[in-house]
Amino acid sequence: MKLAAAVYVRDCLAGELEKLETGGFVFHYHPSYLVEPGARAVSLTLPLRADPYRADQLFPFFYGLLAEGAAKDLQCRTFKIDPDDGFTRLIKTGHSDTIGAVTVHEIPAS
Predict the structure, then answer these.
(1) How is the chain split into domains, by residue range?
(2) Closest to 109 (Cα-Cα) out of 12, 9, 19
């Protein structure tokens, strides 16, 4: 089962973040976004490029979008999420109330 999220910058689909079954994560920009006039990188650590980014853990930028403290506890209780599962919290809560221009929307498993 593929676990993935659509990543938006200012309500424009920019790319996709995927949790691999074998462990690790991949983020890639959509080709159509890369040619958009005025396209902006998701973060300074993920500049615009065609090649995918790979990481063993959730990329620090995306981890930084997660709530902490009491808000984290509430999210974990509400959605029945393991507090150590940052990716699931991101795809369940990253579509609203994020700081900045980036939002993350769950792509339903197919």
Answers:
(1) 3-107
(2) 19
